[in-house]
Amino acid sequence: MPRKTYRQAINEALDSEMARDENVIVIGEDVAGGAGGSGEDDAYGGVLGVTKGLVGKYGRARVIDTPITESAIMGAAAGAASTGLRPVAELMFVDFLGVCFDQIFNQAAKFRYMFGGKAKTPLVIRSMIGAGMSAAAQHSQALHPIFTHIPGLKVVMPSNAYDAKGLLIQAIRDDDPVIFLEHKALYETQEEVPDEPYTIPFGEAEFVTEGDDVTVVAFSAMVQRCKAAADELDKHGIEVELIDPRTTSPLDEEAILESVERTGRLVVVDEGSPRCGMAADIAALVASKGFAHLKAPVALVTPPHTPVPFAPNLEAAYLPSIERITAAVRATLGEAVPAE
Amino acid sequence: MADLSALTMPKWGLSMEEGTLASWRLAEGDPVEKGAEIADIETSKLLNTLEAKQSGTLLRLVAVEGETLPCGALIAVMGEDGAKAEDIEAFINSFQPIEPGAEEASADPAGRAYRNAVVDGLTLRFAEAGAGTETVLLLHGYGGDSDNWMFVTEDLASDYRTIALDLPGHGGSDKTLPGSGSLEDMAALVLSFIEAEEIGPVHLVGHSFGGAVAERVAATGTARSLTLIAPLLPGLALDRTYIADFAAAKRKRELRDVLTRLVADPDAVSRDMVEDVLRYKRLDGVAAALERLGAVAAEIAQETPRPPATRALAVWGEADRIIPPPGAEALGEQTDLRIIAGAGHLPHLEAARELARLIRGNIVGAQ
C-alpha cells in the first residue's frame, strides 16, 4: 500500500470529497494563493501546501482565497453551511481563534439548538496546532480544550496520516460543526494510506499498543512520543496500553475506562496547558467512574502553565518529553518519582 | 571461501514487506534436508513455516526470535559442515539484501503483480503470479481478498499461472456489487472476467463464499478442475452469527475475537491481520456490500441441499467452526472430500502446503 504524508492524506481527503460532492468548498487565507497577482495561480495551497492543487481541479468558485480576516472566513463559512454548502474553512493557526470566536462558539455551534433542530451546520474548520517549531507564543498553542469545552462542536485531533484522511472525510460528511486540528510537527510523518476514500467514526479510540500494566492516554503529536516511550518501556518488560481517543468531543470514555479496569494505572499525556485541559478532564473521568480500579494515583504529563517559549531549548523543555512520559509510567508502577 | 549461501526473510505474496521470526525450528549446526521446516515466520496474516529450498547445514542463525525484518534480509547462513567461522563472519558482513519491491510490482523477481481489469463496468483487481500453460483462478471468501491466497499461490506459482481475484466489494476491486449482488450475478461476473482476460478454461479454486461462486462458475462447464475449500454450498450448516459479528465489530479486540473463530489456533491471528480487516471495513461502500453478501450467504445456507454440479475436490479444516465439515454423503458422488487436521475455516492460511499439494493433485488428476 502506498505510504503518504499527513499533508498528502489531508489533501487527498479534501480532493476526494470535493470530487464526490459539489457542495464541498474550501475557504481561507492563501488556500490557493496567487489571486490578483501576476505569478503562479496555485502559488501556495495554504501556508504549508495542504490545499495545493485543489484550485486547478475545482476552480476559484470552490477554492476561495480570502483577505486576512478570520472573522469573515468563519462567518461566511457558518452562513454557507446553514444554506446547504459543506465548507472546509481554514484557520491558519489556532492561535488566531480569538478574533473569530463568536462565529464559531456562539453561532455555528448553536444553530441546531436555536432553530429547534431544523438547521444543519455541516462546517469543518481546519486549523494548525502545536509547538516544536520555534514559532513563539502566538503561533504555537494547543487550544483543543477550548473547543472541547463548547457543546455543539465536535473536535478531532488526528495523530497520524491514516487517521487524518479517514477522520477528515468523516468530518466533511458530518452535519454538525467539526473542528479538525492538525499538528504542525506531523505534516511530514508517513503512513500507509489507502487511495480509496474511507471514514473513521468519531468517538472511537485507537489502541495504539495493547498492554496490561499501565494505560496511557495521549492526543495528536503526543501519541507519537508515547509510542516511542511505550516501545522503550516494553524492552524493560513494562506493557503499556496506549490509547489515542482521536476525538476529544465526543470522547471514547468506554475505551479509557475499560482499559483502566484492566491495568489499574493511568497516565494522561497532553500538549495543552494543564489547567482545565484534557489531562485534567480524563483524570476526573477515571476518578469519578473508575476509582475502584485504580492501584496508583493518576499521573498527568503536560507542559507547565506558561506561554510557549520561543527559545528552542526552553521550548523543548516545555513539551512533554519521552523521558518524562516513561518516568510517569514508572511512577504509577511505584518504581521511581518522576523528575520534574 | 567455502560455499556459503544466504537464508533470507521470505516474501510471500505482493503485500508482504516484512516478517517476524517467531521461532527457529532447527538449531545452529543442524543438517538441513531440502523441504525441511526451518523456522516459523509471522506475517500480516497468520504464522507460516519456512522450508529449506536446498540441503546443507544451518551454520549460523543471524535473526533472533521475535525480530522483525524486511523481506530479503539475511536471517541465517547455510553451507557445508565445517565452514570456518571467519568465512561465515565475512559472508554476513558483505551480505547485500535484494531490495524487495523497490520498483513496486514490476521489479518483483517472482513476476508477481497486482493488475486491474474492467469487467461489466466494474474495476476488478487481481494478483497474478507464476507462468505456465495452465491457469489457476482463486476466489476468496466473504470479507477476504486475494492476499488470503499468498501462501498457496507461492507454492502453485512454480508450475502454474495463478490469478487470485478480489471479488467485488473486497480488496482493491470496486465496492459496488454486480446486479443485485446475488450468487448468480457474482458467478456471471467471474465468467465475464475469465472471458475478458482470455484465461479460460481455468482450474477453479474457491473458498467459503468464493467456493459457492466457483461451484456456480464450474456448473457452466467451463472449468478444467474445481477445488472447493470449506465451500458455502446450499443446505450446509453455516454459523450465521459469524457474519453478523464480523460486520458489527468496530474495535480491534472485538474483531480479533471474531477472526479467532476462523482458525484452529487462537494465537495464530496476527495484530496486522486484525488491523488490515478493520481498515478494509472502513472503506466507502464496504459496509453495504458486506450487508448484501451476508444476506446472500444466509439464503444459500437455507436452500435445499445441493451437491456440486461437477466433479470436485472438497477440502475442509477439521476444526472449522464457520461451516463445519459435512459428511461425504452430503457432497454427492462426484465430490472427493479431504479433511485437514489442525485447521479451521482458513486451511489456505493455516495449512497452506498441505492444501497446495491437494490442489496440485486435483489439477493433475483432471488432465
Please characterize this protein's 3D structure:
- The complex is a heterodimer of chains A (340) and B (367).
- Chain A is of the alpha/beta class.
- Chain A has 2 domains: 3-192, Thiamin diphosphate (ThDP)-binding fold, Pyr/PP domains (Rossmann fold, 3-Layer(aba) Sandwich), CATH 3.40.50.970; 206-332, Rossmann fold (3-Layer(aba) Sandwich), CATH 3.40.50.
- Chain A contains 12 helices and 14 strands.
- Chain A has a 7-stranded mixed β-sheet, sandwiched between helices. Chain A has a 5-stranded mixed β-sheet with strand order 9-11-10-13-14, with helices on both faces.
- In chain A, helix 8 (221-235) packs across helix 12.
- The radius of gyration of chain B is 21 Å and the shape is globular.
- Residues 101-106 of chain B have low confidence and may be disordered.
- At the A-B interface, loops of A face loops of B.
Could you name the key traits of this structure?
heterodimer, A: 340 residues, alpha/beta, Rossmann fold, 2 domains, seven-stranded mixed sheet, five-stranded mixed sheet, B: 367 residues, OB fold (Dihydrolipoamide Acetyltransferase, E2P), eight-stranded mixed sheet, four-stranded antiparallel sheet, globular
Cα-based radius of gyration of chain B, to the nearest Å: 21 Å
Work out the count of structural domains of chain A. 2
Helix/strand order of chain A: EHEHEHEHHEHEHEEEEHEEHEHEHH
**Count of separate DSSP helical elements of chain A:** 12
The largest sheet of chain A, given as strand count, sense and whether it forms a barrel, is:
7 strands, mixed
Averaged pLDDT of chain A, please? Answer: 95
Low-confidence sequence ranges of chain B: 101-106
Spatial separation of the terminal alpha carbons of chain B: 47 Å
Share in helix of chain B: 25-40%
- Quick one: how many beta strands of chain B? 16
